[in-house]
Design a protein that fits this description.
The complex is a heterodimer of chains A (439) and B (429). Chain A has 439 residues and is an alpha/beta fold. Chain A is built from 17 helices and eight strands. Chain A is globular and about 65 Å long. By secondary structure, chain B is α/β, with parallel strands linked by helices. In chain B, 48% of the residues lie in helices and 11% in strands. Chain B contains 17 helices and ten strands. In chain B, the strands form three sheets. Chain B has a four-stranded parallel beta sheet with strand order 4-3-5-6, with helices on both faces. Chain B has a four-stranded parallel beta sheet with strand order 8-7-9-10, sandwiched between helices. A two-stranded antiparallel sheet of chain B has the order 1-2. The chains are: A alpha/beta (439), B alpha/beta (429). At the A-B interface, helix 6, helix 7, helix 15 and helix 16 of A face helix 6, helix 7 and helix 16 of B.
Chain lengths: 439, 429
């Protein structure tokens, strides 16, 4: 991924003049290594000497089951973000559109379908390694179900859908039973897909509990990191967190993930001790809602340069949900069914509002920026209600930006900058708008 | 007047009543339906006093009308509000599915004031958002239920889970003012009624394929919407009247079928009007089949359909009947929001063959993800079977008439140039 290092404001060539460089984390260097290692591992698994089966999974898939079966998960959504951050997504999207996929469809999906159809990609020119099996969990959206169906047709590959009914404001016993039953079925499905007999329950559960413990540790560290960001000035802003999301999404359930977040936590704790902020002269503390705009980090830098730091993101916070408890060892599949059913994008607006308000208060935020992401309906639809609630109930200013996470054609930098300026003025005035304005 | 003349007059009146109801469902069905004999008769004092049954609007063809009827309510299929957008603009972004936006717009505009309640169902991300926005804005105390259906219609536990959701609906509905508890008898009678109504609609579905000169595809869609609006017993009588009239002796003695025109199947979601089909017909083709939410796909129950009478025995209780009903609904030709999609493609391929279809018109709702994802692969499979395809983008049931008309005419020209499909075309069926 493209990165701006301290003292090298490469974004100065972009549409936003930079007044100061943001202070990046030293652990970024390790992160680059992790990303490289992950993707190289996936190619190696499918190479001449490769022996490890590869599964393409969604970001909300119960990946611990696959890890316990020694299957390597690969995340097309992350690959979409990677291509987006290289500003290369439009060409792949256009390939998908030429094949008949509407420009209105999710740009992660179009980017991946374009890569899949052309056999080209952004990792040494190669697409993602061919999958042996496909697993999609509906807990993040209905789109992934359709996207994975397209993928299954293309590769002629076995596909498993983890159907997680909407958990509006809780789960019914029937929902838990339904999802848990599917997780049982996934174990058998995945074993068959890789031509192995299903494992014995005892042996499998032992391995699964080990993986879940690593997920729990990584989640706890991730939450610690979010708590450290409550400091003023905040030791990490959105750019750090968007990029540092990679391990909790892609390496969740591995020792590497835990090891990496220990380093990040230590670095942030050190910054807090030293009173060192991610942004020089922090004046405003903001919350970001929705996926990052991967092709335009300069937008965030523009705010940094004006003393506005992001102290929390609903997007990064969402990965703190996998909090397994010791008592879950009695029935780990049920615990997984519960947690995977209640991820941020599978709960109702009231629950999302509670979580957002909690974050605003805990991080002592002054305002919220909503990225209305054209590609992501589950995340974006409902933001108008949330924005209204932040303004009316918390009395804080909000801003809704129209964009897309990877397709830059849906984003207009100039007008967005003008709106950021107006938002900054509002923050400087220290008040919410007198009359709600959704636009 | 001869008997044939009487029959023709009767079926014309029935047709007119159904079509009129389809034009304005909220006016025709939204004000309540007179109670009377049959499974849907009201028993509560307030409903009995008013002589009207409470009307429950619903938004998806996976919401079982049988349960709403068994609760003593009148089921009314809701669609998008026509015309320019109103209050929805302050709730949902423009990239939400146009059907979901139009539906919410109608509810927020107060068009459903006469409704005793609304039942949403899990379908897609946009409709889920519409539900959430409605919950935040609906009048205090108004009945709203979310039927949290699975996305997978096959696989471990899907039927049991669906039955549990049907059970939640049955338990919730008596909270509607004037509704009554769902009993096994009422559920069985409602299922019988719906089975008969769907059977009568299926007769017309066959007729529009065999004699499109007698019944147009656009008319069938209007009839189906009228039947989803009116009292189901009345609708059954009317549909039967149309079918008997069109298929009776007068037809046999009537004019011979007209020369073959290009035979089209349309595929898409819910349509508020039959205008898109009429556009195809006015351009010189016959719509002889469809894969639409309200007509073809809604009738495509496998086997005995939603007939759960086999469960009718002294021992049959509500859970057993709901279990049978859930299996019937899951066995339908699935909507694109359901997984797996293969059954719908198989249905389409079988339909284009059996109905000797020459070309397929996809009516893709603006910002509808499920249909848009299926479209490229379905088009490829249909074109491989010798059926050229055309896709048109619709919004709130309508098409941009001038541009769409030109594209349809060009498509029909292409069909005439290519000629009838190899495995079915070549003449009237």
């Amino acid at each position: 991924m493209r990165r701006t290092s301290k003292g090298d404001p490469s974004g100065a060539t972009g549409p936003y003049p930079l007044l100061a460089a943001d202070r990046r984390l030293a652990s970024d260097r390790d992160l680059k290594g992790l990303i490289l290692k992950h993707y190289l591992g996936a190619y190696k698994a499918k190479g001449l000497l490769g022996r490890k089966p590869v599964a393409w999974v969604t970001s909300g898939a119960p990946v611990e089951i696959l890890l316990a079966l020694d299957i390597l998960p690969v995340y097309p959504e992350n690959y979409g973000a990677l291509i987006g951050s290289r500003k290369a997504a439009v060409a792949y999207c256009e390939e998908a559109e030429r094949a008949g996929y509407s420009q209105d469809l999710c740009s992660y999906a179009r980017t991946n379908i374009g890569s899949m159809l052309t056999g080209r990609g952004e990792l040494g020119g190669r697409p993602l390694p061919r999958p042996d099996l496909l697993v999609a969990a509906k807990n993040i959206c209905g789109v992934v179900v359709k996207w994975w169906e397209v993928t299954a047709r293309h590769f002629g590959c076995p596909l498993f859908i983890v159907d997680t009914p909407f958990a509006a404001d809780g789960l019914t016993p029937a929902q838990v039973t339904y999802v848990r039953g599917q997780l049982e079925e996934l174990i058998v499905f995945a074993s068959r897909a890789i031509h192995r007999p299903p494992p014995s329950r005892e042996a499998f559960e032992g391995r699964l509990l080990g993986v879940l413990e690593l997920t729990r540790q990584a989640t706890a560290l991730w939450q610690d990191i979010q708590v450290l960001r409550q400091a003023s000035p905040t030791p990490a802003s959105a750019l750090d967190m968007f990029t540092n999301l990679f391990p909790i999404v892609t390496l969740r359930g591995s020792a590497l993930c835990v090891e990496y977040y220990r380093k990040v936590r230590a670095e942030l704790a050190e910054r807090v001790d030293q009173g060192l902020g991610a942004v020089d002269g922090e004046r405003f503390r903001l919350i970001w809602d929705n996926i990052a705009i991967w092709y335009d980090f300069d937008l965030v830098r523009y705010l940094h340069a004006r003393g506005a730091a992001f102290v929390g993101e609903t997007y990064t916070d969402a990965w703190g949900v996998y909090q397994y408890r010791p008592e879950d060892a009695a029935d780990p599949l049920e615990a997984m069914a519960r947690l995977y059913s209640q991820v941020l994008l599978n709960v109702g607006l009231e629950v999302r509002k509670e979580r957002l308000f909690r974050m605003v208060r805990a991080q002592r935020a002054h305002g919220v920026v909503f990225h209305s992401c054209r590609s992501c309906k589950t995340y974006s639809l409902g933001q108008y209600e949330l924005s209204r609630a932040v303004r009316d109930e918390l009395g804080l200013p909000t801003l809704v930006i129209e964009a897309d996470m990877t397709d830059s054609r849906a984003f207009s930098a100039g007008p967005t900058k003008t709106r950021l300026d107006a938002f900054l003025e509002l923050l400087a005035a220290g008040c919410a708008p007198a009359s709600p304005n959704l636009a | 007047m001869t008997e044939s003349d009487h029959s023709a007059a009767d079926h014309s009146a029935s047709l007119a009543r159904l079509v009129a109801a389809s034009r304005d469902p909220l006016a025709a069905g939204g004000a309540g339906v007179s109670g009377g004999a049959g499974p849907a008769s009201a028993s509560s004092p307030s409903a009995a006093r008013s002589g009207r049954r409470p009307v429950v609007g619903y938004v998806c063809s996976y919401v079982p009308e049988e349960i709403i009827l068994a609760a003593g309510c009148h089921p009314l299929r809701l669609g998008a509000r026509p015309g320019p957008t109103g209050p929805v603009d302050s709730c949902l972004q423009s990239f939400a599915c146009s059907f979901a936006r139009g539906l919410l717009d109608g509810l927020l505009s107060g068009q459903g004031r006469g409704l005793g309640g609304v039942v949403f169902a899990h379908t897609c991300d946009s409709l889920r958002a519409a539900l959430e926005a409605w919950k935040a804005r609906k009048p205090a105390g108004s009945f709203t239920h979310f039927l949290n259906l699975p996305a997978c219609v096959e696989g471990s536990g899907a039927a049991e889970y669906t039955a549990s959701e049907f059970g939640r609906l049955a338990e919730a509905l008596p909270a509607v003012e004037g509704a009554r508890p769902v009993t096994a008898q009422a559920l069985t009678e409602a299922a019988e009624l719906m089975t008969v109504l769907r059977r009568e609609l299926s007769r017309l579905d066959v007729l529009r394929s065999e004699r499109p000169d007698l019944l147009k595809g656009s008319q069938l869609l209007a009839i189906a919407r009228g039947a989803a609006t009116l009292d189901r017993e009345e609708a059954t009588r009317l549909v039967r009247g149309v079918a008997d009239g069109l298929m009776g002796p007068a037809t046999a003695a009537g004019p011979a079928p007209r020369p073959r025109r290009p035979r089209i199947l349309v595929s898409g979601g819910f349509l508020e009007t039959e205008e898109p089909l009429r556009l195809v017909e006015e351009a010189g083709a016959d719509v002889v089949g469809d894969d639409l939410c309200l007509a073809g796909r809604a009738l495509a129950f496998s086997g005995a359909g939603c007939d759960i009478r086999r469960e009718r025995s002294p021992a049959a209780d509500v859970p057993a009947l709901l279990s049978a009903l859930s299996q019937a609904y899951l066995s339908r030709v699935p909507c694109p929001t359901k997984h797996p999609p293969s059954r719908r493609l198989e249905f389409l391929l079988a339909e284009v063959k059996s109905r000797q279809v020459d070309g397929v018109v996809f009516l893709l709702q603006k910002f509808c993800d499920p249909h848009a994802f299926d479209y490229p692969a379905f088009r490829e499979a249909l074109e491989a079977s010798g059926r050229p395809c055309l896709s048109l983008e619709i919004e709130r049931g309508g098409l941009p008439a001038g541009q769409a008309g030109t594209r349809v005419e060009a498509f029909l020209e292409r069909l005439r140039f290519v000629g009838p499909s190899a495995d079915g075309g070549g003449g009237p069926p």
